[in-house]
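User: For documentation purposes, I need each entry recorded in a consistent format: the amino acid sequence on its own, followed directly by the corresponding structure tokens. There are two entries in this batch. Please keep commentary to a minimum and don't merge the entries.

Assistant: Recorded as requested. Entry 1:
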Amino acid sequence: MGLPKLIVILGTTACGKSGLGVALARHVGGEIVSADSRQVYRGLDLGTGKITLQEMQGVPHHLLDVVSPNESYSAAQFQRAAYAAIDGILQRGKTPLLVGGTGLYVRAVAEGYSFRDAVPDPVLRAGLEKQPVEALRAMVEEQTGCVLTGGEERNRQRLIRTVERLRQGDMLEQAPHVPRYTVLSLGMTFPREVLNRRIQQRLWRRINDGMIEEVAALRAGGATDKFLEGLGLEYRHILWYLTGKYATVEEMADHLGRAIQHFAKRQMVWFKKDKDVLWLDTAGDPLSQAIQAADAFLEEAL
């Protein structure tokens, strides 16, 4: 018997992964596991683009709203929870779909990463100790495709240990993996100029829908400024606006829009490393293409 089958929908921010996931899940009779490092948090809705109950159209979603603000959540924790959710979906006779844009989360599950502690390298450690926190953070985010959250981006020792593990092969292609599933990976993105326009339009739509008020409510409810800043992107820049770093919403949105565009570029660098992704034609009919690929994949004998 072969491995159970898992459909993955990955890609850049603002490319329509959630909507495609719902439509494809309805077609194949599936349930969705979210692979987003910020959507695991309760109350982080508009800022993360979390799918609404109405948008789910009755398709069950897993690993949304599982952690409270201020708590840390690692890729290893996500992997364990995702395995449990996917195995439950399979036991119910449904097709599991892993949908999201956090590269490390996607690969940890799809490729079966083995998380372990690397043996310290004194020479590497000495070099990393000389690096500023921002440089260490950039190294981790570039290698993993994640926006660091929960204060991780300011934890120097944790950043150093993460870079050490990445440099020594832990959680990367050469590390020993134990795949649990046979995977079909479908990719979603747009040409740069189209994607940037979609990012700007979505940003202002969320601002008008109350994204700034969402961050203010999180602060009032006990989410610390350190936690919110650590979430990056929307939460960091809106926090800076609320605390006076930006004078106007327009100034904040300008800086935030460019930060999201830069993040989307880093996401593509991460996902393009995977040669097995079928990139859908977003200028045509990506749903039909996804349905055709999924049907063929699921019909293949185990």
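Entry 2:
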Amino acid sequence: MSKVEIVSPRDGAVVSSPLAVVKLRYAGVRAKSLVLTVGHTLFVVELEESSGEVKVNVTLVEGANEIHAKVGQAEARCTVTLPPSRGVAITSPGQPAITTRATAFEGAYDGASCPAGVISVNGFLQQFAVPSPAGRFAEAVVLRPGANHLAVQIGEFYTTRIVQGAFEPAKILATLVWDTNTTDLDLYVKEPSEASVWYGSKAAKGTLDVDRTGGYGPENYSISSTNTNAGDYGVRVHYYGDRGIGRSEWTVRVITDEGEPKQRTRTFYGILDRSLGHQGPGGQGADWNDVCTVRAGARGAIRILAPGEE
């Protein structure tokens, strides 16, 4: 008999941050994925073994958050509460449905005591600069179809919002963020046709939904099922402008079959030390990192392969 348990957070807990990790323990499972619902948002968690533990980064919203895990016939539930905070306000996006995957995320803060803040979208984190104790922020976020939990946290202060994404799920989704301000890293995806999607050519079969040039990201590539052709999609990162800062650490999250039971997610990390000017689809050198290959089969099967994997 299959079993699933929410190890943390504990039922009834009152937490102090919207940035949370749900730890799950499961056993006797035949399914390849587990469905986790946190408030209004849905996560598909792939399972490598029939028994084990997984951790899922999530975003909580102010008030009561119901957490529900289901795999096969086994279920587990708990409720945690995030009290209201102060010092931060979101002005955009508003409550109506958002029809574009990349959208503006704006607001104001007062009483900040640290040089950077964190934005969390359904558990995926990106940073932004906080140059003064009070001010405004204007960033971009990458949404997914359906409900999105958004949060911004600066030090001990935070605020949250729920927005709806009203657009088609992606067959392949690749999102780049990095850890330095004012710098410019670029996401490249080479499609099976040999066409590359990048800041100089933002659409082929897929689209570069957002191109950030002033630090932290995000940059995002997405392609729908109807536009996906069989073959390899090569994902790369280029350090376009270091602006004298130097070393930047990047994160790329890749999702395939978004929102479906067969959804798969892999997250890759890397470091680039400087920009050498080798931009463009044919660029090579120490200012480039190969991230992964997404291999789409003729019958719709899809795999995410790290460099060297087959």
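Summary note for entry 2:
The domain at 88-165 is CATH 2.60.40.10 (Immunoglobulin-like).
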